[in-house]
Amino acid sequence: MKKHNKTTICHEVQVHYKRPLFDEPKKVTSSESVVALLWEYIDPERLDYKEFFWLLLLNNSNTVIGMSEIGVGNTTAVAVNYKEVLQLAILTNSVAIIVAHNHPSGALEPSKADRQLSEKLAEATKLLDISLLDHVIVTSEGYYSFMDNGLL
User: What CATH number does residue 69 fall under?
Assistant: First the structure.
């Protein structure tokens, strides 16, 4: 925090760009491409031990402009800070987002909480003219796409 003319400025969320993010642009074209990208980003050794929540930030051509690990939970849940998801989307001027999390249990079926989270994020992003393209659940055994299954 720094003081400036008797006003305190507090930078809670900052975004630092490093361009290019990848050696070559990563474009999202399907749930399969999302999962392939996640496997490049996440540590598969930790996947079966704790729940994690990730955010993919996309431009208007569905090219990934950023990725963030939003939360780390325990073996059965992860707390998701909706404000942080929306802040990052706004600060990066994202046109669309994709969220993902894992189920350490290996179960691919979304829970009631997973469905509620998707509904709440879809409503919030719509107000900001940002599209929630998908919510993906990944496990060591496979993945589940809300979009592919008609839930988004």
Answer: 3.40.140.10
